Amino acid sequence: MVLPPRASLGPYKIIEQLGAGGMGEVYLGEDTRLGRKVVEQSAAFPGEQRTV
């Protein structure tokens, strides 16, 4: 699941994708409540089709 820039996950906004691999994707985001940058990981699940 690739998230587009500026997508929201709860109080977090995605800024950009930092990387992807067999375990999932890693994104740079922003916690809109605290105004801080955060790193978010989206995990891959067994059997999930992945295109990297």
Provide an overview of this structure.
This protein is 0% helix and 54% strand. It is an all-beta fold and 52 residues long. It has a domain at 8-43. It has a 4-stranded antiparallel β-sheet, with no helix packed on it. A hairpin with a 4-residue loop joins strand 3 (24-31) and strand 4.
Could you outline the blueprint of secondary structure elements for this entry?
Layout lengths: L7 E2 L2 E10 L2 E8 L4 E8 L9
Antiparallel strand pairs: 1-2, 2-3, 3-4
Summarize the structure.
The protein has 52 residues and is mainly beta. The protein has strands spanning 8-9, 12-21, 24-31, 36-43. The model has no long low-confidence stretch (mean pLDDT 84).
What are the defining features of this structure?
52 residues, mainly beta, 4-stranded antiparallel β-sheet
Q: Can you count the helices?
A: 0
Q: What is the N-to-C order of secondary-structure elements (H for helix, E for strand)?
A: EEEE
Strand elements, count = 4
Helix coverage percent of residues?
under 10%
| Strand line-up of the largest beta sheet | 1-2-3-4
Shape type: elongated
Strand content: over 45%
Could you give the distance between the termini? 10 Å
Tell me the structural class. Answer: mainly beta
Major β-sheet profile? 4 strands, antiparallel
Determine the mean pLDDT. Answer: 84
Our Rg estimate from Cα atoms comes to 11 Å
Poorly predicted runs are none
